[in-house]
Amino acid sequence: MLKIAYHRLYAHPLPAGHRFPMLKYELIPEQLLHEGTIREDNLFAPAPLTEEIILATHDNAYWQQLKDLTLPLKEQRRIGFPLTAQLVEREIRIAQGTIDGASFAQQHGIAFNVAGGTHHAGSNWGEGFCLLNDQAIAANYLLNKGLAKRILIIDLDVHQGNGTAQIFAKEPRVFTFSMHGDKNFPFRKEQSDLDIALADGTGDEEFLDRLKTALIEVFGQHQPDFVFYLSGVDVLASDKLGKLALSKKACKERDQLVFEACLQHQVPVQVSMGGGYSEDIKVIVDTHCNTFRLAADLFV
Question: Would you indicate the residue range of the signal peptide (predicted)?
Fold first, then answer.
C-alpha cells in the first residue's frame, strides 16, 4: 500500500506573505484523493519527533535555540521564516513523517512525505526555509537502528543539498548525490559525494541524459540498500527561482528514471517533495502529483 505522510501543520503555520508556496501541501493530497489515485487510508499523520533522534543529526546548541525560540535574528533571516513554536513543530513532524515513510518503504517498496526535502539545514544551521534536515535525520535513524547499512540520497531539487552534504561529509555509509543549478542558491556549495552542476537554461535532453549516466554510476559504486529521493519541481522552466528549463513531461521522466533504478536494484525508496515556485499553483501541484501517480503505477 502506498503510504503518504501528511499533517495539517504542513500548510498552515506561516505568516501571510509565505503562504502561497505552502498551499501545495494541502492541494496535493486533495487532488490525489479527488482523482482516485489514493484513498484516505493511504495518508498518515506523523507525530512529533523525539529530541533524542534530532540530536543524532543536529547539534544540541542549535536545537536548543530552535526549541527555546532563541535563535539569533541573523540566523532566522538565513532561514527565511520568523521562528515560532508552530514552525518548529511543523519541522519535527515533517522529519518524523520521513522516518515513518522509510519504514513503510521497507514494507511496500516506496513511501512519500507530502512535505520534506529540507536539505539546506546543516548540523548546526538552518537556511533556505529549512530548520531540520528530514532525510538526513531519517537516514541516521535507519543506520543507528541497524535498519540499513548503505544509503543513497538522490537530490534532484534545483538547489544543491548543501546541508545534507555537510552532515554526511565524513559518513561513508551514506552517499550524497545532488544534481542542481550551478548558479543558483546556495551560493556557497558544500561537497556532496557526487555533484552535477547544471548551467542556467539546461533543458530536457541534457538533464535526462546526465541523470541516466549518474544513476548507473551511483547505484553501481555505492550499492545502497535504501534510497532517499528529493523530487523538487523547481527544475521546471516555469519556476520563478529555478533557472533551468525542464518540461512537465521531462520532470515525470526524471522520476521514472529514479524509480526504475530503485526497482531494478530492489531497493526501497522514500520520497520527499522539495521545492516548487511556478507562478501557477496548478502547475506545481500537477507536477508533484505526477510523482505520486507514477509510483502508484510502478510499485504494485
Answer: none
At residue 9, the pLDDT reads 87
Distance CA(186)–CA(127), nearest Å, equals 9
Give the pLDDT band (50/70/90) at residue 21. low
Q: Write the CATH number of the domain with boundaries 3-298.
A: 3.40.800.20
User: What does the domain layout of the chain look like in residue ranges?
Assistant: 3-298
pTM of the prediction? 0.96
Contact partners, residue 30, CB within 8 Å, separation at least 6:
none
User: Which SS3 state, helix, strand or coil, does residue 158 take?
Assistant: coil
Contact 287, 237 (CB under 8 A): no
Q: Which of 120, 159, 180, 288 is catalytic?
A: 120
Average pLDDT score over residue span 156-177: 98
Residue 186's pLDDT is what?
94
Three cell numbers, residue 78: 538565513
Does the annotation mark 120 as catalytic? Answer: yes
